[in-house]
């Protein structure tokens, strides 16, 4: 059987269940990454959906995947096209029998699958980006709690555990590789990030499976997991948080791999509140994925999942000041400059600048979510939009939105002004 393996946000070969199925069932495979042309077009807010930092980090990972596949005698075929149109051309050109891919529960990605099936393509898609597989979730989607704490307690009381990460199917050495001489080159523009908390110009922070796994290994070989809860709200530096999110977002590593390392650390080193909190954060990530699956496109609406018909205000002028780091608050400006210059921002600072945009500048939360999508190297559609909806009061939390007192946040997390001075 001739197949396409369509890489999406799973740019790895280890613990890639869908890839293993493709290898097991195919005689020949065309390994494909489709860079959708829509990702370089402007949003309704007037800027590109994918900024330079995301482009660079993705390019690093694609080059790493190309090198990884070449170790098995294969190559990655890269295309810049409408994703569905591009795949249909390849199906016709190479007489493909089936396309394999991971399933992503967001409306644009699901629409791509629907369009392909509408063209009678035999498409095998498999959900694999979370901690748990679909059949491990202990309730129907309609019964998914709208409050995270209920979800967490249900998972913990039923002792739902992730499966062990899978190795690469060794048939990869035996299958024939289809190579398209007309595929595109992966372009990569070098940039420097000397002040970043995640400097992707430094070798150990490069995008890609090997770098991600090495970082994961190093983190759990240190004492950092045992102090994570105490340091996680800091604003700058390499060591205050796990920094797994960029590698997880592009699928260079999997959530199950993180959990596997965490479990080993708890068994062999120490199990405490900080190690639990790493699992707690993975559960939040899981929960947002399930919320996306439950509510779909509604999350992108002006009122998110809320029922309010109150007019949502927006000021283009205020949004531009926020985006460019030219507000009345130097603390906010520091965060926005870090984001624009590096493509990274601490979790605490993300919440602070989001609250400022929504509550102080009275802007549409979706504009902020779109700017984060453009800039963040760890952009993840479900985590990004659910967090923004949560701050704006348009998520599932019955308590409504979140207001952060900027002066209090500055006094608590930047009492000596070190962060502000670094970026302003």
UniProtKB/TrEMBL annotation:
Cofactors (names): (6R)-5,10-methylene-5,6,7,8-tetrahydrofolate; FAD
Span of domain Photolyase/cryptochrome alpha/beta: 1-131
Keyword terms: Chromophore, FAD, Flavoprotein, Lyase
Gene Ontology MF term list: DNA binding; DNA photolyase activity; FAD binding
Residues annotated for FAD binding in this entry: 228, 241-245, 281-288, 378-380
UniProt GO BP: photoreactive repair
Gene3D superfamilies per record: 1.25.40.80, DNA Cyclobutane Dipyrimidine Photolyase, subunit A, domain 3, HUPs
InterPro entries named among the record's database cross-references: Cry_DASH, Crypto/Photolyase_FAD-like_sf, Crypto/Photolyase_N_sf, Cryptochr/Photolyase_FAD-bd, Cryptochrome/DNA_photolyase_1, DNA_photolyase_N, Rossmann-like_a/b/a_fold
Function statement: May have a photoreceptor function.
Name by which UniProt lists this protein: Cryptochrome DASH
Organismal lineage: Bacteria, environmental samples
């Amino acid at each position: 059987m001739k197949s396409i393996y369509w890489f999406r946000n799973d740019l790895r070969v280890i613990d890639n269940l869908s890839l293993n199925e493709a290898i097991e069932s195919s005689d020949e495979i065309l390994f494909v990454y489709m860079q959708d042309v829509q990702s370089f077009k402007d949003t309704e807010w007037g800027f590109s959906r994918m900024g330079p930092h995301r482009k660079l980090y993705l390019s690093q990972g694609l080059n790493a995947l190309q090198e990884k596949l070449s170790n098995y005698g294969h190559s990655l075929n890269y295309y810049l096209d409408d994703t569905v149109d591009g795949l249909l051309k390849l199906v016709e050109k190479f007489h493909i029998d089936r396309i394999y891919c991971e399933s992503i529960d967001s409306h644009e990605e699901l629409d791509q699958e629907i369009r392909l099936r509408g063209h009678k393509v035999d498409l095998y898609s498999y959900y694999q980006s979370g901690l748990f597989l679909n059949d491990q979730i202990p309730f129907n989607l309609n019964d998914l709690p709208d409050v995270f704490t209920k979800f967490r307690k249900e998972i913990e009381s039923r002792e739902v555990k992730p499966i062990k990460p899978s190795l690469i199917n060794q048939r990869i050495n035996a299958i024939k590789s289809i190579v398209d001489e007309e595929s595109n080159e992966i372009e990569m523009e070098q940039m420097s990030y000397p002040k970043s908390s995640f400097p992707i110009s430094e070798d150990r922070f490069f995008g890609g499976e090997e770098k991600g796994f090495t970082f994961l290994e190093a983190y759990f070989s240190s004492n950092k997991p045992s102090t994570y809860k105490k340091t996680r709200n800091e604003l700058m530096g390499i060591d205050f948080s796990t920094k797994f999110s960029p590698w997880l977002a592009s699928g260079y590593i999997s959530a199950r791999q993180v959990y596997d390392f965490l479990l080993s650390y708890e068994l062999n080193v120490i199990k405490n509140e900080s190690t639990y909190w790493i699992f707690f954060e993975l559960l939040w990530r899981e929960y947002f994925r399930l919320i996306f699956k439950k509510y779909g496109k509604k999350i992108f609406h002006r009122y998110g999942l809320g029922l309010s018909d109150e007019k949502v205000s927006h000021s283009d002028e205020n949004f531009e000041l926020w985006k460019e780091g030219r507000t009345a608050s130097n603390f906010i400006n520091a965060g926005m400059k870090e984001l624009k210059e590096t493509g990274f921002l601490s979790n605490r600072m993300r919440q602070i600048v989001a609250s400022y945009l929504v509550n102080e500048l009275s802007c549409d939360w979706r504009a902020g979510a779109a700017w984060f999508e453009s800039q963040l190297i760890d952009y993840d559609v479900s985590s990004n939009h659910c967090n923004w909806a949560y701050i704006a009061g348009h998520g599932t939390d019955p308590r409504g939105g979140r207001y952060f007192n900027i002066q209090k946040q500055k006094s608590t997390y930047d009492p000596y002004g070190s962060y502000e001075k670094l970026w302003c």
